[in-house]
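Figure 3 (text version): C-alpha cells given as input.
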C-alpha cells in the first residue's frame, strides 16, 4: 500500500500530535499546527487521534493511491479538492489533486490506518529544523512514495462499509473544523506575559488595541507580525528561558513573534504575551497577510476556553463515531 507524490505542494509534511517529554533535552513537541483539524480528519477515517497524516499548507499536492484508500481532508478549504470534512473512498489508481487554499491555510489528509513512517522519539511528526521524523525529516518532494499499513486497503473497505448515510464514494454528512476563521481580523485571546510590565504603556496599549498582519517571513517556527513597533524603555538584556507554544516574543526590531509548533526550546527575547492554547489552532489557520486582533484575558479565562474547546471537540468526535457505527 503506497501513495505516490506527483506534485508536492508548497509545504506538505507528515505530522501527528507531536513528541512530548523531551523539551529539557532540546527537542520540542512539534506536531500538527492545527491539532483540532488533525483529530477530526483521523476520526473521519476511523483512526486513533495520534495517527500520522499529511499536513498541507496553502498549496496542495497531487497524489496517486495504489489501492482503495479511505481518506478524509479536514481543516482549510482548498480549490479542486475532494469533498471536504467527510470520509471518501479513493479507488485503486485514483488521483487526488489539491489546489490552492481558499479559506484557511492548513488542511490534514488522513488515511485509514495512518501514514506508516518510522517513529522518532515516539512520534511520526516531521521536525523540519532538526531534519528528523516524518518522511526523511523533510517536506515531501516529487517522486516520493509514502508507505501505508499492509492491510490499509482492506481496512479502508471495511470502514467504508460501516459508514452511515453513504452516497457514492462518500457520505451525505460532514464535520467541518471549528478552527477555520469566519472573518478577519481573527480574535485571539492572550494574557500578559512575564515581561509585559517592562514595555512602555504605549506599547502595552498598542499590542491589544492594534490589528496585526502576519508577515511573509512566518513559518512553522513562528508567526511574525507587522504593525506598531513595541518598545521597552530600559532596553536591557534578559536571561534566556524556556519557551512554549503561543509565547509572543519581541525582538529588538519591535515586531512581535508568536511561537508556533516548531518553536525553539529556549529564547532570550522579552515576552509580552502568552496566547490562550485554545486559540493557537485558529491562529495557525492564517496565511501570510492574514490579520489578528489580540483580546486581553486572564489565566482563568484561558482555562475555561480550553475546557470549552475540548468539550466541543469531544461532542463532534462522538457524532463521527456514531456515523461510523462504533
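Below: residues designed for each position.
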Amino acid at each position: 500500500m503506497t501513495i505516490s507524490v506527483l506534485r508536492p505542494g508548497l509545504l506538505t509534511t507528515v505530522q501527528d500530535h507531536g513528541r512530548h517529554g523531551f523539551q529539557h533535552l532540546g527537542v520540542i513537541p512539534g506536531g500538527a499546527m492545527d491539532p483540532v483539524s488533525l483529530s477530526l480528519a483521523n476520526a473521519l477515517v476511523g483512526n486513533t487521534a495520534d495517527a500520522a497524516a499529511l499536513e498541507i499548507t496553502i498549496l496542495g499536492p497531487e497524489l496517486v493511491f495504489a489501492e482503495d484508500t479511505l481518506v478524509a481532508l479536514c481543516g482549510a478549504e482548498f480549490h479542486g479538492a475532494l469533498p471536504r470534512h467527510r470520509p471518501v473512498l479513493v479507488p485503486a489508481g485514483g488521483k487526488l489533486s489539491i489546489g490552492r487554499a481558499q479559506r484557511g491555510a492548513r488542511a490534514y489528509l488522513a488515511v485509514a490506518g495512518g501514514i506508516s513512517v518510522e517513529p522518532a522519539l515516539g512520534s511520526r511528526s516531521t521536525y523540519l529544523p532538526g531534519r528528523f521524523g516524518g518522511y526523511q525529516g523533510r517536506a515531501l518532494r516529487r517522486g516520493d512514495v509514502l508507505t501505508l499499513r499492509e492491510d490499509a486497503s482492506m481496512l479502508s473497505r471495511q470502514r467504508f462499509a460501516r459508514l452511515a448515510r453513504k452516497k457514492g464514494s462518500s457520505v451525505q454528512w460532514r464535520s467541518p473544523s471549528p478552527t477555520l476563521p469566519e472573518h478577519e481580523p481573527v480574535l485571539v485571546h492572550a494574557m500578559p506575559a512575564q515581561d509585559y510590565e517592562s514595555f512602555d504603556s504605549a506599547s502595552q496599549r498598542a499590542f491589544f488595541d492594534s490589528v496585526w498582519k502576519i508577515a511573509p517571513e512566518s513559518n512553522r517556527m513562528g508567526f511574525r507580525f507587522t504593525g506598531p513597533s513595541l518598545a521597552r524603555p530600559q532596553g536591557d538584556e534578559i536571561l534566556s528561558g524556556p519557551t512554549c507554544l503561543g509565547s509572543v516574543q519581541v525582538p529588538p526590531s519591535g515586531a512581535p513573534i508568536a511561537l508556533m509548533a516548531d518553536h525553539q526550546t529556549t529564547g532570550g527575547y522579552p515576552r509580552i504575551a502568552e496566547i490562550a492554547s485554545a486559540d493557537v489552532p485558529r491562529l495557525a489557520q492564517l496565511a501570510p497577510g492574514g490579520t489578528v486582533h489580540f483580546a486581553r484575558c486572564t489565566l482563568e479565562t484561558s482555562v475555561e476556553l480550553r475546557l470549552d474547546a475540548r468539550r466541543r471537540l469531544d461532542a463532534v468526535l462522538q457524532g463521527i463515531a456514531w456515523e461510523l457505527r462504533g
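Helices lie at 35-44, 152-162, 201-209, 280-284, 299-323.
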